[in-house]
Amino acid sequence: MALAILRSRALAGLSAPEVTVEVHLTGGLPTFTLVGLPDTEVKEARDRVRAAIQNCGFEFPQRRITVNLAPADLPKESGRFDLPIALGILIASGQLKAPTLDEYEFAGELALSGELRAIRGALAMCAAMSAAPQAAAARRAFILPTESAPEAALIADMTILPAKNLLDVCAHLAGRETIAPHAVSPAPTFAHYPELAEVKGQAPAKRALEVAAAGGHSLLMSGPPGAGKSMLAQRLPGLLPPMTDSEALAAAAVHSLAGIFKLEHWGQRAFRAPHHSASTAALVGGGSVPRPGEISLAHHGTLFLDELPEFQRGVLEALREPLETGHIHIARAARRAEFPARFQLIAAMNPCPCGWLGHPAGKCRCTPDQVLRYRGKLSGPLLDRIDLMVDVPAISEAELSTRTMGETSTAVRGRVMAARDRQLARQGKPNAQLTPNEITEHATPDLAGAQLLAQAMARLSLSARGYHRILKVARSIADLADAEAIGAPQVAEAIHYRRGLAE
Q1: CA separation (Å) from 101 to 4, 107, 478?
Q2: How confident is the model at residue 113 (pLDDT cuts 50, 70, 90)?
Q3: Residue 58: per-residue pLDDT
Q4: Considering the domain 434-503, what is its CATH architecture?
Q5: Is the model's pLDDT at 138 over the cut of 70?
Q6: What is the pLDDT of residues 201-252, one digit of tens each?
Q7: Are 229 and 236 in contact (CB under 8 A)?
Q8: What local confidence, expressed as pLDDT, does residue 157 receive?
Q9: What are the E-state strand segments in 350-476?
């Protein structure tokens, strides 16, 4: 009878709880049993591990093999447990001597040849190791596939040992050939974004985009086809301040969990633009094994919803909670997960079903009922959570043909960064995230501004949420102007951006 105990990690949302892999060999008829709430991918490890062990020149023991993945009530999924299971079998059968086994954690999917394949969530697993309250867990080295090492190495003060195959890991544990720690490559320092100067005309829309970037506000643009709504939305990430290390790490962890992280995109704000046929699970996340959706993949970035009324109503209504809280809870019968969703929403829509309402050429043929029905696809509670709305009219031939370039993204980003710095120094967060108490403290208008806001409340029948959002936007406008007080001009501009939501 022999027993081997190794350490690995599971994934539960963005957390990565520790998993103890126990391998027990005993006499009896040859069997291979996996227990500990394994998913289908984990159960299939039996065949992958057997072939990998044999193809690496080891003997697969013809004995009764029991593998326990503890804790037993934690669901286990993916092929990340292949490597610790294979090592446990070799150690328990006496083919591998590993006296320092407790100094490592293992993760990796095995090919039939014994090669190690990349795993998703390596960054999240390494972050959990670094944040572990146990001192021993924080000191352990992490052995994982070579392809997954670059993202895991983004966690500072962690020892990452990249391995190409099972034989490399066995040689390292036996002390015959040491695996060199992964050398951290310098992360990209410059992010490439589309240039704002490429957008001709649309000065009011550009101003609204600047205000949205300064305070982290949501924005809805309405205009005919070809007016430049998509172009404007694509340029928002280039107007936002550079990501901090903590923001970049949080965004990269979500992308790693989804298996789409690329090192060259480190520090770049995400721009996610799902098609209007996307389901609720695709947008907010879900599945039998909860995965992050588009709103989480846009964490600390931009979520662009083009043709907003064409989305299913249930899909749009699911945005209400994360727009307010900055995170999303996904509950299933056996699993629950929480993902961050601090995204900036940019939406675009046509003014009518045909898209040409208000066009100077008079192209629209929609009836008033059709227009109302089209706009009615967007619920009041959802529109109430959008901070700014701006019309994007058709561009004239004179504007298109001009050779004069507009303001560059660099110039606008400079003003946005200065406004953000004022917000962080004053309240430690962007204006869009202010609570009601913080609004009272930092965004109270002067007497003229208060009187103007009172008139707007009466005429537009604004809700309490609308009232607070006007103050947030006015605070951002004042920050752009380097004004300490919020006066009537700032309140008037904020109300102007709100009128479209109330009409």
Answers
A1: 9, 14, 59
A2: very high
A3: 95
A4: Orthogonal Bundle (1.10)
A5: no
A6: 888 999 999 999 999 999 999 999 888 899 999 999 999 999 988 899 899 9
A7: no
A8: 80
A9: 388-391
Cα angle for residues 348, 351, 357 (degrees, 5° grid): 145
Domain with CATH 3.30.230.10 in the chain: 2-174
**Contact partners, residue 127, CB within 8 Å, separation at least 6:** 16, 155, 249, 253
CA distance 365 to 220: 24
Q: What is the mean pLDDT of residues 420-439?
A: 94
Q: Any idea what DSSP says for residue 272? A: E
Angle, CA of 58, 59 and 63, to the nearest 5°: 145
Burial (0-12, 13-18, 19+ Cβ within 10 Å), 191: middle
- How far apart CA 286 and CA 13 sit, in angstroms, is 10
pLDDT at 502 over 50: no
Cα(241)–Cα(269) distance, rounded to whole angstroms?
9
Residues 6+ apart with CB under 8 A from 436: 468
Q: State how far the Cα of 135 lies from the Cα of 132, in Å rounded to an integer.
A: 7
Query: 399 is written with which tokens?
Result: 């504007």
The segment(s) of the chain belonging to CATH 3.40.50.300 are 197-432
CB-side neighbour CA atoms (13 Å) of 90? 27
Which CA distances in Å does 190 have to 3, 155, 265, 301, 414? 51, 20, 10, 16, 16
- Give me the architecture of the 2-174 domain, per CATH: 2-Layer Sandwich (3.30)
> Looking at the chain, how many residues does it have?
503
Span 253-281, pLDDT tens digits:
999 988 888 888 888 899 999 999 999 98
Tell me how far apart the alpha carbons of residues 469 and 436 are, in angstroms, rounded to a whole number: 10
Please choose, from the candidates 121, 186, 110, 189, the residue with its C-alpha nearest in 3D space to the C-alpha of residue 152: 121
Among left, alpha and beta (phi > 0; psi -120 to 50; other), residue 368 is alpha
pLDDT (0 to 100) of residue 186: 56
Please say whether the beta carbons of 19 and 70 come within 8 A.
yes
- pLDDT at position 96 is 93
Write the pLDDT tens digit of every residue in 289-344.
788 999 999 999 999 999 999 999 999 999 988 988 899 988 877 678 889 999 99
Could you tell me the sign of the dihedral formed by the alpha carbons of 318, 319, 322, 324, in that order?
negative
